[in-house]
Design brief:
It is built from two helices and five strands; from the N terminus they run αββαβββ. The protein has one domain. A hairpin with a 4-residue loop joins β4 and β5. Helix content is 30%, strand content 23%. The protein is an alpha+beta fold and 111 residues long. The strands form two sheets. The protein has a three-stranded antiparallel beta sheet with strand order 3-5-4, covered by helices on one side. It binds zinc ion.
Length: 111
């Protein structure tokens, strides 16, 4: 499958989601390692859109639960992208989405 045009765009968005997931983890869970599980933090929406500035409020426990399964991410309910992911869980303030198999291994450094 060529990594160009429309498909390349989706691949890049999928890769961005993984980077945001890693950023959220380091920012909130490593820096704040002594936080209580019920402490609520603001996480970046992991939709991967270049212009997204949404923040999602989750407890540390909710965040960990959402990411206990590989290829799952938290996104704003308005930022669900059916082309690259499916909804795994619905919450009032956020969705847990799972990357479709074709996009699970997208390499953030590949062009
Ligand atoms: Zn977003």
């Amino acid at each position: 499958m060529p990594n160009t045009g429309e498909d390349g765009r989706w691949t890049r968005q999928a890769a961005n989601e993984r980077l945001i997931r890693e950023f959220n983890y380091e920012k909130n869970l490593v820096d704040g390692a002594d936080g209580r599980p019920d402490e609520e933090l603001l996480f970046y929406c992991a939709c991967g859109r270049g212009d997204c500035d949404r923040r999602l409020c989750l407890s540390i426990a909710e965040y960990r639960e959402a990411h206990a399964t590989p290829h799952r991410f938290i996104v704003d309910p308005d930022h669900f992208t059916p082309h690259i992911e499916r909804i795994a869980e619905r919450h009032p303030a956020y969705l847990v989405v799972e990357k479709l198999p074709a996009y699970q291994g997208a390499d953030p450094t590949a062009e």
